[in-house]
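Weekly modeling sync, notes
Attendees: AB, CL, MP (scribe)

Item 1: holo prediction request
CL wants a bound-state model with fe (ii) ion before deciding which constructs to order. AB pointed out that an apo prediction alone won't tell us much about the pocket. Agreed to run with the ligand included and paste results into these notes for async review.

Input as submitted:
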Amino acid sequence: MTDIEFSPEQHKTWAELYRRQVPKIRQHASALYLEGFDRLDLPSEQVPTLDHLNSKIPDATGWTVVRTDVRFTEADDWYRFFDRREFLITNYIRSWEELDWTPEPDMFHDIFGHLPYFMLPEYAELQEMFAPAYLATSVEEEKENIKRLAWYSTEFGMISEAGSLKVFGTGLMSGGDEFTNAAEGELEYEPFTLDNVLGKDKVMYEQHDHLYVIESLDQCKEEVAKYFDPIIERGGGLPVADGRS
Ligand SMILES: [Fe+2]
């Protein structure tokens, strides 16, 4: 697949975001993320090429990185790619004015936030739990709950590591102020459990004041499995007659 060319301004935006964020992640990110970050070895001065990403990730976990010119992929499509272990990265990168925070996921989020984790088989296992459950249901409320569980764990979760609160979520890894506020204990924190997260609306167009903390990857997997397993066992994505489970 041929890769696209990015402009000097886009490379400059990447380099500035990278320069700002690396000291913060070194101090506050989960050890899991940092392990993946070191293995992925992203370039600091320019947008990474697909060749670079796909020379590392498929060998590590079997996932492949796919570029898209769609700025925001709808969840149904997103999970179909996920089901094939394909991770979409958008061609869009935030403007210079939005360096500190953008509500819209851009390529810096997709690459810097998410992809280091795809160097770790134990993390890929967690990510691979979501699509089968999402695609197995046609109940809108269940789909929303699956998206919420992803949002408050892989996207905006915190993790407790050796008694310290560390940043886990990919949406925080790629964000400026929000990362700092989350990392420095400025927000409200609750355990990541089904009881706490189900029914809780996603916060999408402003920064979070409330986040959830996983104890470990295994605890997160166990928690989401409690919700996903009955959906998958019920089976097949068959329409549910009255729209309820
Ligand atoms: Fe994301």
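Recorded for review: The CA atoms of residues 125 and 221 lie 8 Å apart.
Action items: CL to compare against the apo run; MP to circulate these notes.
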